[in-house]
Amino acid sequence: MKNIGNIIKTLQNIMRKDPGVSGDAQRIEQLGWMLSLKILDDKDKELELISDKYVSPMPKKLQWRNWAGDDEGTTGDALKSFVDDTLIPKLRDLDVSSGNKRVLIIREIFDGTNNYMKNGTIIRQVINELNQIDFNKAEDRHLFGDIYETILRDLQNAGNYGEFYTPRALTEFVTEMINPRLGEKVLDPACGTGGFLTSAIENIRKQVKGVADLKELEKTIHGMEFKPLPFMLCVTNLILHDIEVPNVDYTDSLNREYTSIGQKDRVDVILANPPFGASVTDGVETNFPQNYRTTESADLFLMLMVRYLKDDGRAGIVLPDGSLTGDGVKQRVRQHLLENCNLHTIVRLPNSVFQPYASVATNLLFFDKGKPTKEIWYWEHKLPEGAKAYNKTKPIQKSEFDTLKKWWKKRKENEQAWKVSIDTIISNGYNLDIKNPHTPEAEKTHSSKELVNMLHDSFRKSDELLEKLKEEIN
């Protein structure tokens, strides 16, 4: 059996020889669109075998098998000019008037795609390496799922692309706790490369009994992403998870009039890690009611997600510490969440979970819509014994959540768990950034604001001492 891991390494090494490709981000983007075409064509072949009536929406000349499939086929300048002058322009301009969602997805993938490679002979070498993978073979597809994770992890080190990758341990744990069922509509309005969507698919697949169930699953998983590279990777990720026509919109989910989201748009489940620390596109905040306008993306996404949930709908999301505290709009957004949803659990994560691209402290929030919050349980997730921080080689593991899972159904206060009433939260200006009361004082960490106040107190005490000393000397 061929080692797909070696194929990916070989591909990256071949690409490094091309003068047009610089850095990991461009390499991943280049590999991304080529893989997309190969995966789409392999899927077409499978569908053609299953049904005589199936016709690929891809024009024949642009199908992978017809321009790339033959290892002895076009190469050099002829291949480069085909890719630059025919393939990408025609895919960007596919006719979508038929309403075929697969055609629209292909067009959207190529709308923001570039061919960075300048050497047609090296392009041919990359293609021939990709031709060794058959995405219709279960073993190749399964192995490639792991390689895909590796590519996504590489994104964390590629400039600012890390924001689109949520560690698999988190997506799987959150999905397991929310437990989406067959027939429920699942939404991720900031889906990145599809980590939460694929976790939901795997969770629901255990209930799938036949073709009708599979079609139902396909219809009910919905993502939105507005950056070209993660959108492309998300679509191919879903196809690799046997979703024939991924329901992923190439759109900025914040760029929609808040009040236009009505009953027909509402969903049963939201799983998401919305971008945080990023400013939104100019003017997007005007889609939201006056009282909640802000340029902090995480806060707008929180409003959006509450709006999209049905009554009795449930959500599991990642939010930074910055969204748990602060006054003004931030406070009003939190008040809106607590009055419209039962925020029953907050899991406080160590600040190295998203290293290396962000060292922000983050939290997992679990809430149900339709009833106000009366109390919130907090759980402090501790680093494994002996570890000072998570890193690229030692990321967070799903098994670390085992103790929390056991506690989940029979909740009691312990050194990692504590409960806070809504009255305490209201009297504290809806501040949700509540530290573990069981942590010894010496181990407690403090926010920047707390540190500034402590420093201020310290200076004040020093001044008082100096005054006293002066009096005594005089």
- What's the order of the H and E elements? HHHHHHHHEHHEHEEHEHEEEHEHH
Radius of gyration: 25 Å
How helical, in percent, are the residues?
Answer: 40-55%
Task: List segments where confidence is low: pLDDT < 50 over at least 5 consecutive residues.
Answer: none
- Spatial strand sequence of the major β-sheet: 3-2-1-4-5-7-6-8-9
Q: In CATH's first tier, which class of the largest domain applies?
A: Alpha Beta
| Mean pLDDT over the full residue set | 88
CATH level-3 fold name of the largest domain: Rossmann fold
Main beta sheet, described? 9 strands, mixed
What does this structure look like?
By secondary structure, the protein is of the alpha/beta class. The chain has 2 domains: 133 residues, N6 adenine-specific DNA methyltransferase, N-terminal domain (Ferritin, Up-down Bundle), CATH 1.20.1260; 287 residues, Vaccinia Virus protein VP39 (Rossmann fold, 3-Layer(aba) Sandwich). The protein is built from 16 helices and 9 strands. Helix 11 links the parallel strand 2 and strand 3. Helix 1 runs antiparallel to helix 6 and helix 5 runs antiparallel to helix 11. The radius of gyration is 25 Å and the shape is globular. The protein starts with a helix and ends with a helix. The model has no long low-confidence stretch (mean pLDDT 88).
